[in-house]
Amino acid sequence: MTSTLDARPGPGDLLRGWRTRRRRSQMDLALDVGVSTRHLSFVETGRARASRELLIDLCEHLEVPLRERNTLLLAAGFAPTYAESRLDARGLEAVRGALEHLLAGHEPFPALVVDRCGDVVMANRAVGALLSVLDPAVLAPPVNIYRLSLRPDGLAPHVRNLSEWAGHLLHRLERLADLTGDPRLVALREELAEFAPPPPQGGPAARAAHVMLPLHLDHPEGELRLYSTITHFGAAWDVTLDELSLESFVPADEGSRAVLERLAASGE
């Protein structure tokens, strides 16, 4: 009888999975890392044991996220290399301060910090004003931006281009799941796909009015068309920071800018 422990993938299986996911050949990867193709093949099949340094080097070249690097190192019998800190932990004061500065500096436009799965970690005041149309019960933490955007008890009834926006978010989840190999993202996409309306008619012609897909919202203060940008930390060595992203929204037209400015003024 096979135990659960025995059924777990070994380091070679995980490594081969990431190499396949990144569409790299053994020869190509071996040349980049500076080992023989034969040795890399033996590592993947379990005939050779890779050192910690080699595994980390392979992960660097395969762009394996830090959480998954720790998983691979554990499978190989090594202690995890990358810490996973709480954002409010001592030592991250500079990071929190930088995020707070970025969020505040983006006002009166909405901006928020989310983790890999879209759970909101931090947000500026403009986000609260924007979401004031929703039932406060929906905003009880943890708030997930994907669920909040697509569920009928969230923003979905207020999104005028819901079909296009849902397609964009589901594609983002699919891409993130492919990049990270995180099964939570696969499950989240499957959950939310049930709420997505059919794709819009008209194809590219229907999108010609904008250079980017806007989030088009109905709000009591007026219509809002918002473009979004996403920023990540560079060279993070902590799992938490590696998985954080800052999503900022900017007005797509002067009317939307005016609405956001009115919302900010009313909240002061």
TrEMBL record:
SMART domains per record: HTH_XRE
Residues in HTH cro/C1-type domain copies: 15-69
PROSITE patterns, alphabetized: HTH_CROC1
Name of the protein this chain belongs to: Helix-turn-helix domain-containing protein
The species this protein was found in: Actinomycetospora chibensis
Lineage top rank: taxon: Bacteria
